[in-house]
Amino acid sequence: MQLPGLMSSISKLPTAILRGIAGVVATALVLAAAGCDPGAGAAVNQDGAVLNPVSLAPSPAIAADPGVFEDRILFGQSAAFSGPASELGIGMKLGIEAAFAEANRAGGVHGRRLELTSIDDTYEPELAIANTTQLIEEEAVFALIGAVGTPTSRSAVPVARASDVPYVGPFTGAAFLRDADALPNVVNLRASYNQETEEMVARLTTDLGVERIAVMYQDDSFGRAGYNGTMAALERRGMELAAEGLYPRNTTAVKTGLLDLRRGNPEAVILVGAYQPIAALIAWARHIGMDWEFITISFVGSNALAEELGRLDPAGGEGVFVTQVVPFPHDASIPSVAAYHRALAEYDPNAVPGFVSLEGYLTGRLAIAALDWCGPRLSRDCFLASLHRAEYIDLDGFLLDYGAHDNQGSDTVFLTMIASDGGYIPIDTLPSKNP
After folding, report:
1. What is the pTM of this model?
2. CATH number of the domain where residue 352 is located
3. What is the pLDDT of residues 118-151, one digit of tens each?
4. What's the total number of domains in the chain?
């Protein structure tokens, strides 16, 4: 067909299809500029949104970037595997490894197996710096993935940024990590702490009519991130904080903070901390008759919190609310959760599904999608460019939407509550204790 005839035919296509073509062309140009070789056959919908990319056949081509070999790609993780936040690191590692094992069973990504090297930082910033330096300089990893915590990420990210190493899916909603222009190497999966605390205040005030809200937080950058988000949500409603309490990181020294809360006579307390101190605070409060409405942020580690409350609280944590940033991990009717169940069962038949390992699994799937898009000629530039393209990434129905100035994929916050049996149930609104 001659060019005029071709152009005439194209102009008659439906608008939606034209948008899709434009999106694919734009993506190809961005990836090509980053040195990528995107896989032919990567699935897109009629709007140009990326669905589940299809891998090409293996190729011997090797990029110059560290961590990329003819037969494997090496990722690194610094996270807490001991101490009060250990269940978070263990859960993230489990989920990432389940996703990697799933890809490896299918032949890897473009013929390369995915490997993860994990080092314990005990949720301490100094160790996070040392571990990140070791992973980059000694282990020569391609990218960092699944870090746990705000203070640790605040310390580790400058090290990764200095070497232009991708920092993917940290288990934190801290605002500073969402500055895509200042931190082009950071890619977030989850909703932010600001979004979680906004949802908390909205539900407490709308569903329960609460007027006096207090906050208990960890005395570091993580706790202050949740505190700042709470204050912003209250200010938007013309409300003042009823009281605040705090406790030192990596301790369960919560009694002083509890007394500070009691002096403010709150109706509800927003909790920003790890599972051990948060469980201790709730148990002590209920022991002395302060049965406020308790709602805690996703970082708490939901499974570990319920287990700890089952040990400390005679009520077993019943009625405690937790915001989440991933779907309910026991609802296999959700396609992404069903995929997670299959991968987890194949990797570790004895593993119990949970919110943290589900987030780890989705983080691993996100990395795999980026690797797949880059094709056999893999580079860090291409990996990051593929994640920052302005299109949807569909992880079996869990949609992520990035852009040139947006490094956070999901904005969704879910609500859950601990039931009388110590397990979690998904909820849409906060139920009143006195219906």
Report:
1. 0.84
2. 3.40.50.2300
3. 999 999 999 999 999 999 999 999 999 999 999 9
4. 2
